[in-house]
Amino acid sequence: MSKVPIEIIKVVNENQYRGDAVRFQVVVREKGQNWDRCFECGLDDLIKFRTELSVIIDSISWYQKLGIEAATAAHIEKANTADEICSSCNFKQSKNCVTCLTVLQSPLERKLYPKLLESNIYFEVQFPLNRFGKKAHINNSEEKDLRLKYADLLTQPDFYLPNGRRPICVYTDGHSYHERTEEQAKRDRGIDRKLQELGFVVMRFTGKDVRESIDKVVGDIRKMVEAKN
Domain DUF559, which positions (predicted)? Predict the structure, then answer.
């Protein structure tokens, strides 16, 4: 973001008979010019200018300040009012809402997301990994099917923590181990095994874990982050 090319300088004119007279110079630096434009004014003029700026700034909506589209903002405002997960969130009307409501793919992810933000653990959401443990290349950003969207996709963890030499992949599974189908369990075991071979730590939490023991879930993730590499 470029700096506003305006500088305000206080000038004190000393007068032994009338006392010090305070005036101000407003200096406007024009791009591409080797000279400045200066205006002199008094305190009342500056106060009026400040008031006019405040009125303009206050008229800007929260989503305009954050650079969020109006349609997305309407979706966020509706969710912030009616959504159960939003009701207890400390990040309402923020850019985190965009991630939570438009990027995350399940209520479990949305429930864990603000807790991880509060814990000050650095992470990325929906991070695509290829079979070499690197970020998967995007083939088609508009494609909904992940296998078609990315080249050589191995997995897309719900939450990815780079964490030095021991990166962590966190998954929030809707089913416990025994509730998954054999095909799902086999696929997950294969992904976990490959990630571990590549040096990743894999952490999977069930819906019951997230819904009933979310503080413990966050604590377990933090312990893994703080463990020695």
Answer: 168-225
